[in-house]
Amino acid sequence: MGKSIEEYKADVWQQFREVQRVYLATSEKDQPRVRPVMLIDYDEKFWIATAMESRKACQIRNNPSVEFCLPLAEGDANGYIRVAGVADPVDDPSWRKEIGERFGYFAEYWSGPDDPDYLLLRITRVEVEYLPPGETEAVTFLV
Questions:
Q1: Which pLDDT tens digit goes with each residue over 86-125?
Q2: Quick one: 5-142 is in which CATH superfamily?
Q3: Gap between the Cα atoms of 77 and 41, Å rounded
């Protein structure tokens, strides 16, 4: 590992320039639940849009601690980025509109940013674990 933590951080944030499909883990009682979701990194926070009564939304209301993983691949080499954080619902109309417009599929599910079935979740980063493709040791840092 010849890079500095700042260089690893820059590598991680580069991976989230576009909307990404990640695997989000929530918990239901004592059982972890994982599913793919679309995620946006914007304004130094991660954002997910979901239905108000989805299972993940219900699980997050009961326990806002979440973790997601973005698998990485370069040629035959694999790696990942894991982010542990806290998911909070966002009611602010301007954020709901701005973030909703960034999800290409938004109009397929909701009539607009004031749709009562639209739940916007902001994930505040707590801990990042990064295993660059081809390396054998992960780097962990707090944000």
A1: 999 999 999 999 999 999 999 999 999 999 999 999 999 8
A2: Electron Transport, Fmn-binding Protein; Chain A (2.30.110.10)
A3: 25
